[in-house]
């Protein structure tokens, strides 16, 4: 750790009491700016809160709040008996500049050998205790999973000698009956025009994103995502060696004009879209932008990774067909899965693309985990053919719609003064933005005291300070009683938070 | 394709009739040498067989045999009505020089976008028809899989409300009960001294090899393997960006003196060993070399990836404890799984290492496929705790021993004049070398005519011309009747092959 404070905080920081942004947030913004621009380098010691408050002629609490916020965001760290320092492991700063070489570092194991440390990947944080009520960021309710049906069909297959073959080494493309069943299922429900050669079975959508990234993004190739975007997708792209360029997201989805501008200035390899319900904000990509994006892909020769993670859950009207249904030239890699319909732990997904891309993805998949669980794949094939999957999906859709309606109604009635949100047309979560008078870290800390666990390891989608200030609150996994409890707890939490905010 | 033949074959090739190596193989060796050294570059046209046989004063058949062999090995290719050319896609030449940049090339998809083509990864070839008798390279007999037990235990869990939790998003490290069960199981059966923090559940050993490679081998780091080695491991290392250095393998296993020499000249990041039964040759790493290797790892600070794929199958005496049981400093990453004991399609394996390595591997695994099938993992945990796994393993071990004995006895009696092999002390395959008067491609082509399918997509383990001339013949998946049939068919095949060889 370097020690002397040489940076001229006093003259560099300019706070403006006349603009509508809290002083402590203005202070945060400017310190983050200095860190991003390299004026404050990792391990630089920051002035004490007393010193800085005197220099800037502000209340010491303002500096403390700013430091707390910056610590929570990972920009700075406090070391006992030493002081406060710019973090050695900085959070993702400007995603545009991120690529492998800058975020992998070698660390030394206890055996003395080096291995790669991935600062862009995070471990899931330790789950809270059993007494906690958990609100995820959009998981299905596993209590509704048709597991008895699955276990029964699965077991029936094990009793038939013919199906013992399914236990041997199998096709790296996946169980052929499932691939065939998916061809009909996806052509019927999504308007695709695929054949079995276009289908690779994966372990859920995540493996699809991983495979696509590894295929498309080596050596600092550029992928465009929305700002903000599904965090796990971003880290998967970075892991593959890609560079992320962000474009804005508004109520019509990802901004395709900004994509076009980027295409004219540099080579774009891929665009990642969650077209049906943008993750995290839940907006649907407009018809006009869909056609624009497809045309851009054809013109500028990039791939569209269409992650259709919750196509089956649309409540207000019929779902909009995916981009893949209008893909005349083979530009779309369409990714989906059954984890949201059936159960998160039974990881079966699909990766749909032109045959040449499928062949390469299958080769790669072979050395990752060889193949899928063929018996489970056969079981899911049977459930699609029998109509079980569709019946179950319709059943839970009704339940989730009721839950959405209740959750949103109560959120508006009881907490409308703290949170800003729109009722999502589908999916399993509401994109909830917090009034900028408050910050999520305080809310979350208070929530834990009330045994309410949002379990958001990436709880903020504005870590590049884009001002979204939102989190996803999953309603689908909560029954009505639990929804009522969550809202009651949130009322108590926000009351405490707002009192502490106004008390000097 | 370039056309004029400018390379001076006549003066460059020197054949020696007095040494104990077939002329056509001497010719092969030298042409491969020219290709490897760059004297013959891809797409160079080779002289016609008539021309070359005249230039070298040898029988034209010798040139034809040499060309056939080189085509089979992938060094050259024949193009109808044009002639024979050095291949554009050369096989793995000198593994030492292999790394990502040289083997990935971008190809253009029908949609116009570029994606990575991996020439080092192969697709599984199309399986032969149902009437074919299949001899793998060491798979277990899936017909013996305890699938009824699995399905029963699995279904019982699905009936208990408490276990419904297993269907939700779970721990990226794997099911905790399985991790705990593995701690006792591995400490008892392998002499390890691990705790739950050292255990990551994977999808079979292959995912373990993949994770270790991604952690250790970025940016052209060097890994040492045996020559020859398990092909899928080699391709996984190359995929991760590693460079492979090979050392020889003899009857004591991988040569650790050669490893030491390499360590003194360059930075080694990892050594890959299949210590229990070297893949493919089945030899066991000697006690002396084990200690030597562990000491080298400590001294030169490299990781040992110990792939213990068939520890449970040792027939002649007690299995030798893995290197991991003597790893005092945390240098060993120990990889194994249940696919060989239970069933290839139920992919559950383990990755054992120091906690810091486990944490990084888990983070990476999270973006590959999120997590394992928790319900299946719980089922396997129960089977370990109940002793079902050990009972089943003992049961099949007896069966496989009987099969090994029968297979080796008949192979010696009926085919001893064609094949050279040693009775393997364990495992599921015999390393069968072919008398150099014959070549495997001819044998395999004839085998297919006899509806015998060795299904070896990488059927040769001497593709860098190390002269092994061997393949693995799996006996474990064949019952006694099938073994007798295989041997009978092989007798017919070798008779045909040897007649065609001696007839002018």
Bin the helical content of chain A. Answer: 40-55%
- What is the subunit arrangement here? homodimer
Radius of gyration of chain A: 24 Å
Shape of chain A: globular
* CATH topology-level fold name of the largest domain in chain A: Aspartate Aminotransferase, domain 2
Number of domains of chain A: 3
Number of helices of chain A: 16
Biggest sheet record of chain A: 8 strands, mixed
**What is the β-strand count of chain A?**
17
CATH architectural type of the largest domain in chain A: 3-Layer(aba) Sandwich
* Low confidence ranges of chain A: 1-5, 91-102
Name the CATH class of the largest domain in chain A: Alpha Beta
Structural class of chain A: alpha/beta
Strand content of chain A: 5-15%
